[in-house]
TrEMBL record:
PANTHER family: GLUTAMINE AMIDOTRANSFERASE YLR126C-RELATED. It comes from the Bacteria. This is Type 1 glutamine amidotransferase. One of its GO terms (cellular component) is cytosol.
């Protein structure tokens, strides 16, 4: 099978050589989690979009510095592609920007959160169903976002939430899910990203708190469990 990775953004230049692009990180997460499949990356932010949803068997939308509500020429076609994938019943996963864009495409709403930035390692409470599927009691993942879903799309099921992020993990169908956090980010990348952006894109107090969470003695993420869950979602139902 072939997974299409829709990349609406790329890693900052200062970190690109060391860590690869967001699309690279997503592909690596799926590979180490057992997805032995073919991949194609579409540089969506440069206007590269598939001709239609049948070009690949399953799809994943990565993170981005952009907002799902930005007035950019490639965003409406990407939202339309999400609707076509959803209507066709194809597997689809979204991460951060992808999570937000899927929500907007399917009738939800995304805004800048009044509570500010969510960065560093965040813990999310899981529903009983999600606990069974992921094999953990709660979810610890890297986060970097100010936007978040504020209105739930019709028919979406909430699988995880936190006091900071009410709609942290959503499911639209057995083979269609999205996450606000970044399971593809290593703790090293998250740390370097916050150091790069602190005081500029990310306010100093938020960046400092995020770095503290990464430097804590018991700091960890559940990226491995999420990777396996995404592989099952995208590959076993394609």
């Amino acid at each position: 099978m072939k997974i299409g990775i829709l990349a609406p953004g790329i890693t900052p230049d200062a970190l690109l050589d060391q860590y690869g692009s967001y699309a690279d990180m997503c592909r690596n997460l799926l590979l180490v989690s057992g997805a032995n499949v073919e991949y194609r990356v579409y540089q969506v932010f440069e206007g590269e979009l598939p001709e239609d949803h049948l070009e690949c068997d399953a799809w994943l939308i990565t993170g981005s510095k952009y907002s799902a509500y930005d007035d950019l020429p490639w965003i409406p076609p990407l939202k339309q592609l999400v609707r076509e994938i959803h209507a066709a019943g194809q597997p689809l996963a979204g991460i951060c920007f992808g999570h937000q864009l899927m929500a907007e495409a399917l009738g939800g709403k995304v805004e800048k959160y009044a509570g500010g930035w969510g960065v560093g390692i965040h813990e999310y409470d899981l529903t009983a169903t999600a606990r069974d599927e992921l094999g953990v009691s709660s979810l610890h993942l890297n986060a970097v976002h100010q936007d978040q879903v504020v209105t739930l799309p019709p028919g979406a099921e909430v699988l995880a939430s936190s006091p900071f992020c009410q709609y942290a993990v959503l499911r639209y169908a057995p083979n269609m899910v999205s996450l606000q956090a970044h399971p593809e980010f290593s703790m090293a990348f998250e740390s370097d990203l916050l150091k790069l952006r602190r005081g500029e894109a990310v306010p100093e107090p938020a960046a400092s708190m995020g770095l503290q969470s990464l430097e804590a003695e018991a700091a960890r993420t559940d990226s491995q469990q999420v990777g396996a869950w995404l592989v099952k979602t995208l590959c076993e139902s394609a």
